[in-house]
Design brief:
Length: about 260
């Protein structure tokens, strides 16, 4: 099972640590968030295996918001260029969200219709609702039907287990039935973190630091043994990967 370390393209200072962790087998690849305006060359020189994550709304891009289409298109073009340079296997893409009163799905489908087929691009499922624009907003890509429309046989699928658990709860769905629907889409990549249900905002937590059923997550991952798995756990000490190493140990213990 290949486990990925999540980094941002502003994290060049920990590349040496990442190389060491991959060399000793703690991780097998880096999932790299492509932050706008950063330089790919240090990451290219490292020669590490990469999965990329296209920049999302934290930096402006949001394909479900018609006012942000230009910056979103640019971020996806940049991610493709980085993928070509680094030989990245996949590019994770957030479907986004829109202001209340508009259709997130309609907007993101309009955005994606002109995108060429590229199986490196993996559409990530989202939690159904979140807090943005200072109010509750609906995301795109939180049901099997929506995700099928977004993928259009042109793209692949990333199953974010944290987002799926939040969506199942907010939709009042039985988690096993809901997850089975998403697993039927044959994810090529998983994201895993812990979390709790008391927070409205995204609150990815370290493994065993929340209340999610990690054994259930492991069962989901086992059902798609060829898929990659990226740890999306937080890092309190930004210049050290010790917390990531600890979360990797916990992750492996779920399968022992």
């Amino acid at each position: 099972m290949q486990l990925g370390l999540k980094l941002w393209s502003t994290n060049g200072d920990v590349l040496g640590q990442a190389e060491s962790l991959i060399a000793k087998g703690t991780f097998q690849y880096v999932e790299l968030m492509v932050v706008p305006g950063t330089d790919p060359v240090p990451f290219q020189k490292s020669g590490l295996p990469y999965v990329l994550h296209a920049a999302h709304d934290t930096w402006g891009p949001n394909p479900a918001d018609p006012e942000r289409l230009e910056v979103t298109r640019k971020s996806l073009e940049d991610a493709r260029a980085w993928a070509d340079l680094l030989g990245a296997r996949f590019i994770v893409f957030h479907p986004g969200f829109c202001k209340p009163g508009f259709s997130a799905m309609e907007n993101v489908l309009e955005f994606l219709k002109d995108e060429p087929a590229d199986k490196r691009i993996v559409i990530e499922n989202m939690a159904s609702f979140g807090l943005d624009y200072g109010q509750v907003v609906e995301h795109a890509g939180y049901t099997k039907e929506q995700l099928e429309l977004l993928m259009q046989d042109k793209f692949n699928f990333c199953l974010d287990l944290y987002h799926a658990m939040r969506a199942a709860r907010s939709l009042g769905r039985n988690p096993k039935e809901y997850f089975d629907e998403l697993l039927s889409l044959k994810p090529v990549l998983f994201h895993i973190s812990d979390g709790d249900f008391s927070q409205t905002l995204d609150n990815h937590l370290g493994l065993k630091a929340g209340e999610f059923d990690l054994a259930f997550f492991a069962e989901c991952i086992r059902s798609v043994p060829q898929a990659l798995v990226t740890l999306e756990t937080p890092r309190e000490h930004l210049h050290s990967l010790k917390e990531d190493e600890g979360n990797a140990v916990i992750f492996r213990s779920l399968f022992s």
